[in-house]
Every structure is written in structure tokens, then in C-alpha cells.
Amino acid sequence: MASHGLRNLGRSGLRVSPLCLGAMNFGNEQFGCDEKTSIDVIHAYLDAGHNFIDTANVYSATRSETIVGKAVRDRRDSVVIATKASSPLGPGPFDSGSSRKHVVKACEDSLRRLGTDYIDLYQMHRYDESTPLEETLSTLNDLVRQGKVRYIGVSNWTASQIVEACLMIAAKGWEPLVSLQPQYSILARDIEVEILPSCLKFGLGVIPWSPLAGGMLTGKYKPGEEPQAGTRFAAPGPFQRVWRTRSLSERNHAIVAVVLDEARRLNVSSIALALAWNLARPGVVSPIIGPKTVAQLRDNLAALDVELPADAVERIDAESEPHLPYPHDFMRMARQMAAMMVQQNAPAGR
Known about the structure:
The protein is of the alpha/beta class. 42% of the residues lie in helices and 11% in strands.
């Protein structure tokens, strides 16, 4: 039986559930669910003994934060609310980014929509090349000191950006980053090359988004078939089109076939298998799930009762091995050659 207990988020004392409830679907008219269904899902998640909800000011054009605030109003202190800023909310120069002017206003607006005095985990949704890093980090430090934010994290940052931020924070004595929210699934393992090692080195807990690869790992997208209406890849918009093109590749369909085969062999759902795989990766604290119904929520939570055997993990890992850029590919080849030489020179009979 897998553990359902709370996990520390990075090196912080913030303890969160092993599956985080993502709120991107809530209030989304294109591929999500309405307000009543959203609140039902939130209440079912909390009633099941879980405590971690992730949203962002841009989700459903700010409606997601409002819905989350309504749903947790009567039990705010027992819930860990994470939200994000810096993605564009409008065309104006201060409607996005990580400048002090934008972040302070974005935080105050999120507090108002959530109906709360504080945000448990406040994250920069993307890196802002146009704002000095010191300005962003000092602003986040001030928000913690003012009591508006309890912990801070980042999302979609590169390894070098994470390292630079952590070193600057240490030198200044500011509040540390406790988490990274990256894309990470069996189909998207790029963070294993440099980003995940950086998080492990500096103590950032990893909160993967899209651990089911936008639904690809459920097996609902078939090779050669158009996505069904109401699914994420069928939704309009440039982000969805690009994500769809990248996801519905021949390689990904081959990996999904292995996942489905292993799920049948182990008599578990592909959803539970994919989430259990993600939960067991080094540094991962709480993958973000995105159910649109209470029934889907239960299917996701079933992953907490799954422990994958080593041979299943090995087969999945071998099929989905991430591409290694130079010098990582060169060093892997060197390690393989060294291992072969050791094996060839080993005394007979050993």
C-alpha cells in the first residue's frame, strides 16, 4: 500500500498532500467544468483528506481563483493554496511580468479573488527576461515579510535561472525558493537532465504539472484520429495547437502503448500507473491532477494505492528515455564505455 501521508515541500515545513488538485479546469468554458462542478470536485478532494490546491491568476481569466476561494471559505486554515503570477492578464505593460509593480498588484488582486489574507505558496509562472532577477526576488521576500505570502516558488524556469536565484537569495539572506512547478510526465522527461538535479541540490520540491501529458497517458488519443470535442487538444488557441502538435507524435503514441500494456499487466488504470510513476521520481513532492468530475478525481486518487514493480518502471523508462544534449550525451557514452571495459577486464569466474 502506497503512502497517503503529507510530504514536506522541499526543505520547508509546509506539509502538502502527495497529489495536488489543479484548478486550471475550473470555470474554463473550452475544456473545463462549471462553477458548481468545480466546487463539488474541490469539496470531494478535501473530504478525502487532502489539502493542496494549485491555481493561477490567469486560469479561466481569473475565475479559477474566485471559485477556489468560494470552495474553501469555511476551512481556509486547513488548506494549502498555491497561486501564480507573471503570465499576461492583458495587453498593458504592467499586465504581466515579474516587476515589483506588477507582482505587488497581482498578489493583492489574487488575495481579493481568493477571499483570504494570505497565500500559502506564491509562484512566478514564468521567467521575466525584462526584469532584473534581484527586483523579483526582493519583491517576493517583501511579500513574505508583510505576511501576504507564506512561501515562494517558481514555475517553468531553466536550471541556470533556478541556480542563479538560489545563490542570490543565499547571499542576500532572503526567503528561499521552496518549489518548482515544471512540466513532467512519462512523455516529458527533459527536466531530468539539468533542472531536476538543480532542484535536488538546492532543496526545491517539485510539483509537476500535466503528469498525464494533457490526457495522452490515459489512452484517449488514438493514432490517426482527431481529438474529440471537449478534450484539451481539441480546444482552440495557439498554446493548445502547439501542445497538441508536440504531444500527438509517433514516438509518444509508442510510449503510451507501453504504458497501456503495463497497466493491463498490473491490473491498474493507465491514470494510476502514470501518476504512481511520477510520484516515485526523485525530488517529486506532489504531482498536479486536473479532474473535471468527482469520478475523475477518484480515478486520480487511486494512484496513491499503487506501487509499481521495478521491472515495470524499467520498461517504461527505457521506452521514454529523454534525449540528452551535449555534453550529457557524450558523458553517458563515456560511462557506458567505461563499464564495458571493466566488464571485459574482469577476472574469469567472477
